[in-house]
Model the fold of this input.
Amino acid sequence: MGEWLQLAFVQNAFAASLLAAVLCGVVGTYVVANRMAYLAGGVAHAAYGGVGLAFFMKIPPMAGILGFTSVSAVIMGMISLRERHRADTAISVLWAFGMALGVLLVDLTPGYGADLMSYLFGSILTVSRTSLAAMAALTVLVLLFTALFHKELAAVSYDEHFARVRGLPVTALYLTLIGMIALTVVVLVQVVGLILVIALLTIAPYIAEKTSRSLQGMMFRAIVLNTIFGSVGLGLSLALNVTSGAAVICVAAAGYLVSVSLSALKQRMGYGQGHV
Amino acid sequence: MSERVPGVAAALRRVTYAYNSHPVLEDVDLTIYTGDFTAVIGPNGGGKTTLLKLLLGLLKPRTGTVTLFGEEPAKTAHRVGYVPQDVHINRFFPLTVLELTLMGRLGPGHLLRHYSAKDVAAAEAALDRMEMLAYRKARLDELSGGQRQRVFIARALASEPEALFLDEPAAGVDSAGQKDLYSHLKELNDHMTILVVTHDLLVLSTYVKSVVCVNRSLVHHPSPEVTADMLRLGYRCPVELLGHGHLPHRVLPLHGDKDRG
Done:
């Protein structure tokens, strides 16, 4: 393990997993607290339509994904803002349509096609310096935005109607939040793959939610957990020579299982009672 | 001695509202006077919550006008303390009682600044008033249903509102907690207008001053007696009231216009 850490690509991979841990810890906290995991899944999958589009139109993949994802994210956001509890159907349609469109456009493009598997699971071991820079820039942006508006974002996430009555710009904040999720997906999908993005956005924040007393506390715990999952997963993937993204997801899923069993055990032993 | 004429807190004029093509309220008029304690009752889906959301500007009427303190609700809704229905709210949200109450201090003028000492003092005073100050560091899922409702009321009070609009605050609260909740509201009514959506007829005679029955149409009863009209509007089957047994209410016979509506 020691000599591996000397290798540039291994260092890059660990840097990428650390940045992804921070980004997904923060953004994922909003995803989980807002119960938007399904929306995030929809945005991430629909993004494949952007891959196909970029391929077909011979534009850089980043441009295709960014354009396609922003449009689909805004549509999903508007629908779920209007009917928050009945948005599943519309999200499912965009989810499926985005992926299908991506596959069709890749089929229709002559030459070697984009590999769907690498889109799903990514290749963190081949992450470029440019991608790292993009991730770092987005992380700074996200941290700045959440630091400036944390009170308002918490109010909108917790109770949108009350926030509206208080005169907060709910629609703008909500759509910005969804934009933030979409950007995170766009940047991370190319590095760690779509499935890992969803895992990092949901699993650690979900575990963190149970023990936190504020969104900031939840973010901090989620970042720590994501860092552990990422490093252990990467280490295992190098040691066992298996797919890195899948290894990280399995470690995170194991963490989730442990957390669920622990809280079930706690409840059984009667620690679950409230206190002052 | 001049008679004190109360001002108008909120009014609907010929308001119609529909979800898609399904009409919820049709050509409805309503005036809520300052200082009133009004219960809004009616069957599920009858338009109670819609009425409240129209008054707060959360929904826009198809036709007709809504005024709140004499102006468009969008401009004045922040002067109302709003207690939304509990059921849609994520109970496991990581938030302490105090942080939740502080949300009542938010507003467009408060963007980009931290809560001040004054905000914290106002939030703590509101919690104290609802006897929840001791729980200020508790997480919301550590509270009972009745305690949670009292915190939601504290959040509404933290903004120092002129009126309080509550949507089924007693849902999921045990009967001791309900009594407690309504006696708190009665006390608050001394200096603010209160409008409470409920499907609980027991509160009517004991606590409220007037009753609004909503079921697509709307009838405003200026006194809190339970009438057969209310039963017809509020419940499909009046037997449901018997469930509330020996509570202090009066059931009056039909008034003349039997075939109203």
